[in-house]
User: Fold this.
Amino acid sequence: APHVLHELGADVVAIGDKPDGLNINQAVGATHPQALVKAVGRHRADLGIALDGDADRLLMVDGEGRTYDGDQLLWVIASQAVARGGNTRRRQIKGVAGTLMTNLALGQALRGLGLGFGRAPVGDRYVLELMRKKGWMLGGENSGHIICLDKHSTGDGLVSALQVLQACVHRAQRPGH
Assistant:
């Protein structure tokens, strides 16, 4: 992730990126975002990206130290897709799959955008199952497992982070934002 983000022009300060086979997820990453919150503040960063040890989960932190979980990040990705014409053939976003633990407000907000919303049992494999059954391209869990089938065949934290960053860039380019 640090290499990809650097190549895309980001100034990157990596933390928790020295695995030794025993310390994966130890007090860092998507399972322990407190270290990232502190690092974002210490470095006066615009944002922080937290992945878990196998990089399939994503949480983000803004420059004010607020954390954003999978439900909030799903909203960002889905609402941006709709704003950019997400129902085009290439980026079809008819609905979003969540889980039984997905925040009720996310489902209501997605329906407000004219998107379907469905709940699967907890587990990214069940989310993927529901997505395939419904023909949907986006789904995920509050824990940060996000699946963007128009980009990848499984959950990938870096792919998800890039989708959120793309949404932020497009939103910032709109007048009044």
